[in-house]
């Protein structure tokens, strides 16, 4: 998965609020965690984009375990970019 076109809050370069993603394999869905918001789920596919208010709540997931499948990749915002864990 590739993450690009990251949008951050104005004047706060370490606070991403949107992004574009693409994958060379089809993904079922994308989940994200932003600030104090609950984990959200947005549609999958092979590419997409979203802002932190998009998607539906996933109260059954937690930040350490943001996916409910064994085939997942978790990215963390660090040093001005998203890095896979």
Explained architecture:
By secondary structure, the protein is mainly beta. It has one domain (about 1-65). The protein has no helices and six strands. It has strands spanning about 1-10, 10-30, 40-50, 55, 75-80, 80-85. A hairpin with a 4-residue loop joins strand 3 (about 40-50) and strand 4 (about 55). The protein is globular and about 35 Å long.
What layout of secondary structure does this protein have?
Layout: E1 2-9, E2 12-32, E3 40-51, E4 56-57, E5 75-78, E6 81-84
Antiparallel strand pairs: 1-2, 2-3, 3-4, 5-6
Brief characterization of the structure:
Residues 43-85 are annotated as: Disordered. 0% of the residues lie in helices and 60% in strands.
Helical coverage, percent range? under 10%
Principal-axes shape call: globular
Strand order in the largest sheet: 1-2-3-4
Distance between the termini: 12 Å
The sequence of SSEs as H and E is EEEEEE
The largest sheet is: 4 strands, antiparallel
């Amino acid at each position: 998965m590739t993450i690009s076109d990251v949008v951050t809050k104005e004047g706060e370069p370490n606070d991403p609020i949107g992004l574009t993603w693409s994958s060379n394999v089809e993904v079922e869905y994308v989940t994200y965690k932003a600030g104090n918001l609950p984990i959200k789920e947005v549609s999958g596919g092979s590419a997409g984009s979203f802002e932190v208010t998009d998607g539906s709540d996933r109260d059954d997931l937690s930040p350490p375990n943001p996916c409910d499948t064994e085939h997942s990749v978790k990215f963390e915002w660090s040093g001005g970019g998203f890095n896979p864990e």
